[in-house]
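Bumping with the actual sequence this time:
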Amino acid sequence: MRRSRGSCAFSLLVALAFAAPARAVPGPATTAVLANADVPESVILARRYADARALPEGQVCALALPTGASMDLATFESALFSPLEACLGAAAERIEAIVLVRGVPLRVTGFADGRQASLAAVLGTWRSTQLVGGASLRALSPGIAATCGTTPCYAARWRNPFRGGTFEPGWEQTRDGVRWRPVLVTRLDGRSFEAAEGLLTSALEAEAAGGVPGDVLLMEGADGARGVLDVEFPFVLEALAARDVPAEQVPFETDLSDRDLAAFVTGTARLGDAIEGNRFAPGSIVDNLTSLGAVPRNFEATGESQVSIARWVAAGVAGAHGATAEPLNNSFPSRRFLVDYVDGSTLAEAYHRNLPFAFWQNLVLGDPMAAPHARRPEVDPGLEDDAVLAGPTLVMASAVDPVEGRGVAVVAAFFDGVALGEAEGERLELCLAPATEEHTLLVVAQAAAGPAGPGAFRPKGWTVRRAAVTASAGCGNDDMGAADMDAADLGDDMAGLDMGAGDAGSGGAAPSGGCAASPPPVAFALGLGRVAIVGRRR
């Protein structure tokens, strides 16, 4: 593990104190999963994830990809990025998180300087472009030649833009000569597909239990280079104490064992029983500050370079972070990620908003939607599974927030993955009619902003209904008839809509008299804390 150029203590302390408003909450309507179509187990795991997290069918993408550990940049663009956008279609505009599944390569090679980067980090650049010329950021190099003490080294080049602001679908920030338009990328991986699925299982079990029991263990680094983040420990301990979360700072001990842990951070190239000798609760998260934790060898059935990140996965954690190549010691997440997670952040936010750099060697393992400490809104879609409707019917979707004084910011509906409508507040009217085939109605609600500190994150809750219903154009308005509109028609209509906000009404809900002859309002994205942008057929 090489030290970065100069000292990073000042920037770390500033990051620890900084608490930007947080809105990025990957949910089923804003998360996609990517598998390797040439690896059957990869596709099976992707569908397992999609079923568990209620992802619309169009957000499950299986692409023909190389089966090795790496792919070159040209292949990434032609075989992964462009086909992924095509697979997602219109939903690409609302995606804020992508889950890579074991079987997808780990690294991308062949950048302008001949170097490589984590595939997760490369995909995380998403639609980021250079301000001059408008070419993709990926046409540039992920790193830069530097000096580590007196030794030449290769250092991270691009500061993480997410640390400086809030994040939501379509988020942009201009800095360092780049128009950043990223997404949050995580991965399900381990030494086997069964182990990779364990990351999802750990998250689901923790959410069902309503939290992560156990202690947060802050183990000092084994040496100066790997202990560079120990300076943050006092601040993290104070923050966790204020939240009544048991936490302890201990000296480095390679065989520390017999603990019940909710989180564990340290820095070392070698660990004895400190992983397998402890019990990690479902939902637990970890990070080890060392160079090679996520190199390809560490995901093989046997073999290990330094401390394999896959060992944490086998121990039952829900989230872990590592590097797919030498990152330097200034590239690991601020230990603030532990506090964010306890405050109700999703796993994707907790890690990504605390990474110093983007487009680098970093890899986050876990379900991006995992948020066991969050208290999600409770959603009633107003429709039962296998519902039977006699004719066009107004359905009232609603949500209740379990946190006193916080409330619900927005309720949105998605019909077979197509945005159907969105309203500010707790209720959304939907116009549905009988159909001959079963369709899927997903209703998502997001909590309003809470106070700073614990509860500042705004969780989403959701419910899915599968029934023989379809979006309808005629509810409660006899002279307009009951012209039904199936999901394909709804999707086709989106391309020609005038996306002005003039028809939004009071938050985008249906008019008080019911559904008019026009289709129900269509929202491009689950907009947070704002009036829905809607359009109607001309």
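The tokens above came from a reply further down the thread. The radius of gyration is 23 Å.
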